[in-house]
Specification:
about 240 residues
Length: about 240
């Protein structure tokens, strides 16, 4: 596993340098064909990036499993999470200087957005547990979950958008972000769809009893809450 992670990190570094060179060349020549020709590499970049730790893959799988989302909802939730993750980076990259100076403190870090995301995810987790204990006829809200989970901006997209903008080629940053969305979205969609299949298999095993569904929902909410609060508990214990 360590070797695979090291390979993915090295692959990201190589592709990032190549993409940076392509954007720099586009800024100098304005050759759209050359830029578009490099976008398949950016899609691979997004896939490799999404396979590294993070991106709320476990959180996504937990939510899809706990809420027993249908196939289309699982796919839509995965793509919306990806779009929010990439889109927030583009928004910050193109945002006013005051926004950047107030949200970005370290490379790829946005503490305010991270805190907001964690608070929203914790609220969703508590709500899932509440529904498991006191079931109602209300429906799940995968859109809210997807936005909350994807709110933290993608640091690599942010870096590239800022670089492209500084070179006077913001359109190159947008094209790169779209390619990243395809790559990240494809990986997270596979995670969401795999969780959907797992939920369907579990439902088949435990039957169609309402209690079993409530147990799955409650466990999903509890796991999601633990994923959110565990890093904070670890920091307090250090």
């Amino acid at each position: 596993m360590t070797d695979i992670l090291a390979f993915l990190v090295a692959l990201q570094d190589d592709i990032q340098r190549s993409v940076a060179d392509q954007i720099s060349a586009f800024s100098a020549s304005g050759d759209w064909l050359a830029l578009l020709g490099a976008m398949p590499l950016a899609v691979v970049f997004g896939m490799a990036h999404a396979l590294t730790p993070g991106h709320n893959k476990l959180v996504l799988a937990t939510f899809v499993l706990g809420e027993r989302l249908g196939l289309l909802k699982a796919f839509a939730t995965s793509m919306l999470l990806s779009a929010t993750h990439i889109g927030s980076a583009v928004a910050i990259g193109f945002g006013a200087n005051w926004l950047v100076s107030r949200t970005i403190t370290q490379a790829g870090r946005a503490p305010f957005l991270e805190t907001t995301s964690q608070v929203l995810l914790a609220a969703i987790a508590v709500w899932m547990v509440w529904r498991a204990i006191w079931p109602t006829r209300s429906h799940e809200h995968p859109g809210l979950f997807a936005v909350a989970a994807g709110l933290v901006p993608c640091p690599l997209t942010l870096f590239t958008v800022v670089m492209a903008t500084s070179m006077g080629s913001p359109e190159a940053g947008v094209i790169f972000a779209l390619a990243m969305l395809v790559g990240v979205g494809s990986v997270l969609s596979l995670v969401g769809l795999a969780a959907h299949v797992g939920a369907a298999r579990m439902s088949g095993l435990v039957g169609r009893f309402e209690l079993a569904g409530r147990v799955i929902l409650g466990l999903g909410g509890t796991m999601l809450l633990m994923l959110v609060i565990t890093p904070h508990i670890q920091r307090l214990l250090e």
